[in-house]
Amino acid sequence: MRPSQRPATMPDVARRAGVSVSTVSRTLRGLPTVSPATRRKVEQAARELSFSISRSASSLVTGRTGRVAVMVPTLQAWFMGAMLSGLSSALRAADLDLMIYDVPSMAERRRFFERLPARRNADALLVVSFDLSREERGRLDELGMPVVFVSQQTEGRAGVCVDDVEGARRGTQYLVNLGHRRIAFVQTDSGKGFAFSAQERVRGYRKVLAEAGIPVEEDLVICGGIGQRAGADAVARLLTTPQLPTAIFAESDEVAMGVLQALHISRIAVPGTVSVLGFDDHELAELFDLSTVAQSPVEVGRTAGELVRSVLCEEDADDTRQIVLPTRLVLRGSTAPPGTPGDPGGTPDADGLTLAAPASGERPPS
Fold first, then answer.
1. Are 256 and 292 in contact (CB under 8 A)?
2. I need a labelling partner for 196 at 20 to 30 A (CA). Which of 20, 59, 85, 203 fits?
3. How far apart are CA 82 and CA 213, in angstroms?
4. Which tens digits make up the pLDDT trace of 42-80?
5. Nearest to 252 by CA among 227, 225, 229, 224
């Protein structure tokens, strides 16, 4: 019998299960060359002996660490926390550990690309919301491991993102269908990532206005600040213009919350004087009664985890596969036709947009 003071070893599990040590190793590393019956015997013996294979010991045999690294520009954003939750869940299901590199400043970013700390510490790297230079992409190629991009698209690289252009297009079209013609767009300029999404969303906004024959008023496209501060600053700038827009489309719900707060302080009615539309469906959006273009960061993370598992574990996996997830409109009380406070915005049509019905029964003039 194994002495009680000594922790179980792989040979102990092999003797208990009546198989070879190599079979135990293959079983506990999840290799497919073990029959179901043998796998059950080995797993039962390991449980009885409270044995688990160490990552370091396994890596000496397989060259794998069993870890996936993720590089993020901040841990403070709501999106990041929700995305990491979905990612962690998917990796746990694949028996992979998660290692997080928080890179919140340009100095930290330079050090990361100089040292590449994920090398030898992980089997794959996920890069979340970074607008990388050519030199930085080249450094990632030197890692010698799969790299998956999240919340951005990089040609020829595996990645997961939402359809930011289409989401912004649908949101802007919804506001146009309500009768709005002077629509501001507020985006952030924080250096904290999300640059790709911000650029794609403003592109969708501009595209709809062009298609509708509505000139883009550049003083209504406001860039600057971070989070709620960006929204408040945008309202302050809009209050200096000769005429307020009738709608404000914010790059994110956090920005939109800053817009709502500033409008409230300024005693500007929402949605009677100004409608406000966000993007994300933040966990507080319902509390703010905020209409928004919803995405699911949990689903983004889960999909990214499943994609990296596929790239690592499936021989025929496409390491350039890009997955684009859809968005949807969630209508609440912050949007309505111009000058009609209390109108929640009408009834969605078959395309998920909302068509307003003016009192005259006619469509709003273009």
1. yes
2. 85
3. 38
4. 889 888 887 755 544 444 444 567 899 999 988 888 999
5. 227
